[in-house]
């Protein structure tokens, strides 16, 4: 299975059968609390994404569960399509990505409110860090405050879920993936591979083997060793940044390749994006670090507005920059905010930040083959003159 390639050339991840199926079946049962005789389970994701393979097909089949498969967009024939499916098929467990939750937020809570969602009992999130606003919206408007939300961290490489709350066991926190599943040993380490204390941040690593671990990168053992096993001795390097809070619970911060270095401070794109979408006018945001002669890198943000947006609204750009500074401190104030209509995403909903970085640094675009819609980048480039900066 090829990875989405948000940061580099896609890699062919090799899985085999026994270990993969063992962990996929077990996690599908444990984290989604599957009761095969009663549940109607729906992973609303692209079947070509690892999430589709593991949790539309193999996990549900191995557990004898009922699995909904839907091929189509959420707004055809209407923006109530998903909720129509939930009520028609009496879906009890829904698993999807934060990007689509933010899209539903933008469309408004009136739409799901029209449907009978009373069969739902558990909600899941996957693919990127879920910002607290989206988590709460999902919990309130889809789960109607009755359903636990599990934020599940894993990768194509891990094959199956690795870090997640357990429904009925873990008291969740909006935005946190919480703890490794039983039998899985993860940690957050510093540059030298030393465990960081609670309250600290660093690199997410996996310290013991797990059943559904990848076996190699297809046709490229060298790259496999280099990418995953060379950064830290004896540990699997996931490529993600993470934070441990005061209780030792885990907060994922996105790909380390996306971390920005602004005037000597490491700032995660996820944290700035989350601060932006906590502003009522912002539906979705993507943040990149662009070369800057003064600060090394400077924060450039691309934002999709809620409702009718005025792209020439200079005051709004200033307000948003100040809002981020207020939430995260002045060092995180974006140099520039660009209001855009769409963001470049893979089929699994991940933002292709490296393309936005190309735009922000006026370079020609890199590989765009994994984009859902290659026209999006043209659109963003055309909109560039609307760039807002106070400097
Ligand atoms: C399942 C999947 C893997 C990358 C991974 C992370 C990001 C996935 C979460 C997440 C924060 C999550 N496979 N990611 N889930 N980040 N919280 N719950 O997405 O191979 O396509 O991507 O996705 O960066 O390394 S994937």
Short description:
By secondary structure, this protein is α/β, with parallel strands linked by helices. It is built from eleven helices and 16 strands.
What is the global morphology? globular
Mean pLDDT: 92
CATH class of the largest domain: Alpha Beta
Total number of domains: 2
Proportion in β-strands:
15-25%
CATH fold-level label of the largest domain: Rossmann fold
Name the poorly predicted regions: 385-391
- Can you tell me the CATH superfamily of the largest domain? ANL, N-terminal domain
Bound molecules: 5'-O-(acetylsulfamoyl)adenosine
Write a structural description.
The chain is an alpha/beta fold and 391 residues long. The protein has 2 domains: 240 residues, Rossmann fold (3-Layer(aba) Sandwich); 124 residues, 2-Layer Sandwich (GMP Synthetase, Chain A, domain 3), CATH 3.30.300. Helix content is 28%, strand content 20%. It has 11 helices and 16 strands. The protein has a 5-stranded parallel beta sheet with strand order 3-2-4-5-6. Helix 1 packs across helix 2 and helix 4 crosses helix 6. The longest helix has 15 residues.
List the helices and strands and how they pair.
Layout: E1 13-14, H1 18-31, E2 40-43, H2 50-62, E3 66-68, H3 81-89, E4 93-96, H4 98-107, H5 110-113, E5 122-126, H6 132-142, E6 149-152, E7 186-189, E8 201-206, E9 216-217, H7 221-229, E10 236-244, E11 250-255, E12 260-262, E13 265-267, H8 269-277, E14 282-292, E15 296-305, H9 314-328, E16 336-339, H10 353-360, H11 375-383
Parallel strand pairs: 2-3, 2-4, 4-5, 5-6, 15-16
Antiparallel strand pairs: 1-9, 7-8, 8-10, 10-11, 12-13, 14-15
Helix pairs in contact: 1-2, 4-6, 8-9
Bound molecules: 5'-O-(acetylsulfamoyl)adenosine (7RM).
5'-O-(acetylsulfamoyl)adenosine (7RM) is lined by residues 3-4, 50-51, 126-129, 151-156, 177, 238-240, 252, 254-255, 348.
């Amino acid at each position: 299975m090829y990875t989405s390639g948000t940061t580099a050339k896609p890699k062919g991840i090799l899985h085999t059968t026994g270990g993969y199926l063992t962990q996929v079946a077990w996690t599908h049962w444990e984290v989604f609390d599957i009761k095969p005789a009663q549940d109607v389970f729906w992973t609303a994701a692209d079947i070509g994404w690892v999430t589709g393979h593991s949790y539309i097909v193999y996990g549900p089949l191995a557990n004898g569960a009922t699995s909904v498969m839907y091929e189509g967009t959420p707004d055809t024939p209407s923006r109530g399509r998903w909720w129509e499916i939930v009520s028609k098929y009496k879906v009890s467990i829904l698993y999807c990505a934060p990007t689509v939750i933010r899209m539903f937020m933008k469309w408004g809570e009136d739409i799901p409110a029209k449907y009978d969602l009373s069969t739902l009992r558990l909600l899941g999130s996957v693919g990127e860090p879920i910002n607290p606003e989206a988590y709460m919206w999902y919990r309130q408007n889809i789960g109607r405050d009755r359903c636990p939300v599990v934020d599940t961290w894993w990768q194509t490489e891990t094959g199956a879920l690795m870090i997640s709350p357990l429904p009925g066991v873990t008291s969740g926190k909006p935005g946190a993936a919480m703890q490794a599943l039983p039998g899985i040993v993860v940690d957050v380490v510093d540059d030298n591979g030393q465990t960081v204390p609670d309250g600290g941040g660093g690199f997410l690593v996996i310290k013991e083997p797990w059943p559904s671990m990848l076996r190699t990168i297809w046709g490229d053992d060298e790259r496999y060793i280099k990418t995953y096993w060379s950064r830290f001795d004896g540990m699997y390097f996931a490529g993600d940044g993470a934070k441990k809070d005061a209780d030792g619970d885990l907060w994922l911060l996105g790909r380390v390749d996306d971390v920005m270095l602004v005037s000597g401070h490491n700032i995660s794109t996820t944290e700035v994006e989350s601060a932006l979408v906590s502003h009522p006018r912002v539906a979705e945001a993507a943040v990149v670090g662009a070369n800057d002669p003064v600060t090394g890198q400077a924060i450039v943000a691309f934002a999709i507005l809620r409702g009718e947006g005025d792209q020439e609204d200079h005051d709004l750009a200033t307000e948003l920059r100040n809002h981020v500074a207020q939430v995260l401190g002045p060092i995180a104030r974006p140099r520039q905010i660009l209001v855009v209509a769409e963001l470049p995403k893979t089929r699994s909903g991940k933002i292709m930040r490296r393309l936005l970085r190309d735009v922000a640094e006026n370079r020609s675009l890199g590989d765009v083959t994994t984009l859902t819609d290659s026209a999006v980048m043209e659109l963003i480039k055309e909109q560039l003159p609307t760039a807002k900066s106070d400097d």
